[in-house]
Amino acid sequence: MPEAIDFYFDFSSPYGYLASTRIDGIAAKHGRQVRWRPFLLGAAFKTTEQKPLVEQPLRGDYHRHDFARSARLFGVPFRLPDPFPFAAVAPSRAFYWLADRDPEKAKALARAVFHAAFGEGRAVTSAEFVAALAEPIGVDRAELLAALADPAVKQRLRAETDAAIARGAFGSPFVVVDGEPFWGSDRLDQVDRWLATGGW
Amino acid sequence: MPEAIDFYFDFSSPYGYLASTRIDGIAAKHGRQVRWRPFLLGAAFKTTEQKPLVEQPLRGDYHRHDFARSARLFGVPFRLPDPFPFAAVAPSRAFYWLADRDPEKAKALARAVFHAAFGEGRAVTSAEFVAALAEPIGVDRAELLAALADPAVKQRLRAETDAAIARGAFGSPFVVVDGEPFWGSDRLDQVDRWLATGGW
User: Fold this and answer.
1) What is the model's pTM?
2) Could you list the pLDDT tens digit for every one of the 200 residues in chain B?
3) Which residue of B has its CA nearest to A58?
4) How many beta-carbon pairs under 8 angstroms link A with B?
5) Which of B37, B17, B26, B25 is nearest to B194 (CA)?
6) Is the dihedral of CA B77, B127, B106, B177 positive or negative?
7) Residues in chain B whose beta carbon is closer than 8 A to a beta carbon of chain A?
């Protein structure tokens, strides 16, 4: 079976949200699975000396405009959460904890988090909100809240974030196909082409 | 006659080079002209607090790889000049001086500069090199060299750079279609679509 592709993203990334709506469909066309890998982009920014797009002069204005324009192009709803960016520690921890138990549920939770954040414009920061999003997926609320406070779960997210950065992920989304990295939701057509052709 | 589209770029930008090979063809399909507008990206970086991509941890490695990969996708030759980035003051001044006299020759010079820089990997920094590239286009060498030292020509480039930044150009290429901004050579398909549809 061919290698899964890796989809690195931050839950507080509009372009990560956009990519999340297409990445599995693109992979499936080529018989591939996708490993979803949330990480904390803020940690990468310490390495790259960047700060969030919307806080940058000129670039912030452009990207606020482009988030919505890109969402229209993707045909998905879009609202910028307030505050934005938001701290995505809780949903990221919840994702990995759940992924070890039920990968499909973890992906369903990730979709619910992204939809709440950018489909509905709600910052997904609190453990309580994550638990509320996880409940309809069949995740026990008390169990999830306990996991979010577990040092091992916290450490897991740190390790995943370090691994993402070691892999070169400096932005969101960052997709790796057979070792080939692609940055940005506007590169998904290239990901599709790379999967189809094996490179160019 | 419909409004020309504006193509802002820095001569030391690989993605600007890539866009330069396609932008006129895309515009022509829709009956549009292109105004080529070199500016000094370093001045924009002062506003956006950025530095050249290749000097940035993680991002530098990715983009070095992506420059060449994108060039293969565009089907154009690519060599990174040494040094890179290079100071593109002389070719930019020459462009505007020539554009006031003969816009077609100015565009031909811009193509020659980009080809030398990224097709052949030669930094186009010195006035002498610019004059050598301009000569086959029919530009008098002594006249060009004198122009490059003219305070009015220097001021013109400063004004064009300020105007580009005021328009929002924080990167290269930066294309404006009927007021709509697009950043990056990987957005030319969107430029094409915007020209075809008037927006989405």
Assistant:
1) 0.96
2) 789 999 999 999 999 999 999 999 999 999 999 999 999 999 999 988 888 988 999 999 999 999 999 999 999 999 999 999 999 999 999 999 999 999 999 999 999 999 999 999 999 999 999 999 999 999 999 999 999 999 999 999 999 999 999 999 999 999 999 999 999 999 999 999 999 999 99
3) B168
4) 65
5) B26
6) positive
7) 44, 47-50, 56-59, 61-62, 65-66, 69, 72-73, 165, 168-171, 181, 183-184, 186-187, 189-190, 200
Q: Which of B57, B66, B186 sits opposite A47 (nearest CB)?
A: B57
Where helices occur in chain B by DSSP H, the ranges are: 14-20, 23-29, 41-48, 59-74, 89-99, 103-114, 127-134, 141-148, 151-166, 188-197
CA distance A5 to A1: 12
Testing the interface with A: which of B58, B78, B177, B186 to mutate, by most A Cβ within 10 A? B58
Q: How many CB atoms lie within 10 A of CB B138?
A: 9
Whether residue A58 and residue B170 make contact (CB cut-off 8 A), yes or no, is yes
Stretches in chain A below the pLDDT threshold 70: none
Which chain A residues are within 8 Å of B56, Cβ to Cβ?
Answer: 48-50
Contact A170 B65 (CB under 8 A): no
- Which letter does DSSP use for residue B20 in this model? H
What confidence score (pLDDT) does residue A21 get? 98
Q: Which two tokens stand for residue A176?
A: 């790796």
